[in-house]
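Feature request disguised as a bug report, sorry. It would help if multi-protein outputs had a clear separator. Right now it looks like this:
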Amino acid sequence: MVALCTVTIVYALQQPIIDVSYFAKENGFLQSQVVQLYNRSTETAHASSSKLSAKELEELKGNNYIEVNEQESFGIAEGRNLFVIQVESLQNFVIDRTLNGQEITPNLNQLLSESAYFSNVFQQVGAGTTSDAEWMTNTGLYPQGMIPTANSLSGKEAPSLARTLKEKGYGSATYHADDVTFWNRDVLYPVLGYEEIFSIDDLPDIKKVGFGPADEVLFNFAANELPRQLETYERIYANIVTVTSHTPFEMPESMQYLDLPAEYEGMYIGNYLQSIRYADEQIGKFIQELKDQGIYDESLIAIFGDHSGMHGTLVTEENQQLLSGFLGHDYSLKEQYTIPLIFTGGNLFEQSKMTRLGGQTDIMPTLLALLGAEHDEPMMGHNLFQYKKNLLGMRYYLPGGSYIQSEQLYKAPGAKLPGVLYDLKSMEERSKNSEAKKHIDDTQTLMNYADFLLKDYMEE
């Protein structure tokens, strides 16, 4: 028995742990524990093999590397203020769509006429959900996956969007209508280098919905801070994280803008659409406020969703049927995990819809390139305006080892279900082939490098 156990452990040590539950199922619980302990003890020894140059990283994604300052979009928004609006639970399937003749996102739809809209961007958050999205947007690095990244930070300062922009005269501020200690944001925000931090303690204690003051309170507060900030700094980077469109999406009647069909009333999907319609209204008002203050034409604005809202056990079979009717087809993993990413600003973009693959790790590199700012530290993402091909990893919401590639989505095997390869465009199942095997290997290389970069900011 001991000899057999020794043999199985030796075999298991030769296998990579991509998904813990699947590894334990295939190799045994004891073997899984031994391999995890061994891997932790040898992390430092193997760290050097995880390094990738920017050129090597881009080649993994299928692109020829171009120096940032030589890319076509570099500096087209140089000198502009930056507003990053991270919208709670905003998924891509609601954009430019109607229900009984009513637009779900009329303000965003109108904004598309002067925006670059990326419609094929995937969430990459882990267990830290919204805070993981903040981490990626402000570092260009992956989150941990099974543990919220913010909960493991050592407090060491990270090279970030705020710090790189500070070198170009930007002051930075972040706004969120929640307790700053939630998801350890009291640690996360100093790590990210924000000069001004505004939370529930700073906002007016009015119009509470869910976690705190409604989005309209948040946006009004941020708008009122701008005149002072623009006198204090050469230009401003404002990070605004909305919260009202958070599950369970139950909105007071006065904040409901949609006249829902009877079958949607009281349903999870109905509540979701109402909350997104509300968030859209407040974004529209904030954009108008920027125009009224004369700031819009001097700004670059990025709007995106943090993660899916329509997922989990609350999406019952009845909700699934309503979703299928709303979409005109079955609700797939692609609809579940894609978020809109919109870049806009006065006289900056002509209307364009970009279908090339992107992820949340790509947001920071894209913003910096547009602003004409070079970042001296490695990032996992790239400038979406430059590169057509991509390779993304995702943990937590998909089993470890899963990938999204420009033509494929691979859901790796878990403890209960086999792996499935999909055509990314049609979401039809495909047979696993040598190309998929290469993407699996490349994704493992990519994620090893992601962990290598992340480790420097984690507690020992």
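(second protein starts here, but nothing in the output says so)
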Amino acid sequence: MLPMRSSKPLVIFGESILPGENKTVNVEIARLHTTTKLNIPIIVRRSKIEGPVVLFSAGIHGDEINGIEIVRQLISKKINKPKRGTIICIPIINIYGFVNKSREFPDGRDLNRSFPGSKKGSLASRFAFHILNEVMPVVDYAVDFHAGGASRFNAPQIRLAENDSELKTLADIFNAPFTLYSKNIAGSFRNSSAKLNVKMLLFEGGKSLDINSEVADEGVNGIKRILKHLDMLDPKHHTVLPQSPSIYIEKSSWIRAKCSGMLHDRNTIGTFVKKGAILASITDPFGKFERIVKAPNDGYVINANHSPIVYEGDAIYHISNTLVEDAKH
């Protein structure tokens, strides 16, 4: 049975939001070093009809713009206006990193390794503490949007922990091109949310400091399918039926550069390749050598390094090596 929140006000960071009310809660955890205020907008829309509370969040890494674009579209297109229940959107969790076009918080810490946080800890730790204690207790379901870091492009994919049938159902409904089983990492937003019994999917797509329209479309369409499943999607919004079930990947591995040089990608991202297929070549800038990068096994290329320059040992491709044929398994 789907959770049903009562008609009582939702309280987020001390602000009450009544059924049928729309409110933007501007949160200020710490000012800039110039004393300039920097607010993190939390956009809440409630229906008058009881229903679940769903969170869509992005920008936990400030340079992962593609996720921010997905949540922005939800608001711009009014997809966040629920038929029932409540939709909370936080387009940019790490506003400090977004301003600096940086993955980390100003204190150099990764916010997604700082949960559950501490009220008197570092800046990142304090922020994690407040998000977890002020927002997540009212949330039933969540999708947190990410992108690949360091020029590595992720094919659109959902990640979820194993052995959770409800999460598996939600992943099937979201139906990203790929779905990966991924353990909850200590210190992550997803791990701490799971301990509060929030059913959270993690979406990965695109790369840092980039907006890709195809990835954004996958994210927005997946969200609409989730909302329709929860009977929360406004009837004026139509869902797009997926062409095929999500490809489930149980195990995968990284291919690393065997030498330093200039990387010439063959654009295999998101495709199935056979063992021995050429994925890229690495050359020196002086025309003296060319090294071919081949697929070590049959599999799907779910991440590709788009950096033109790589060093020996750099991760350049992420390829599946164990598949579940489709979402029915």
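Even a blank line would do. Unrelated, but nice: The radius of gyration is 21 Å.
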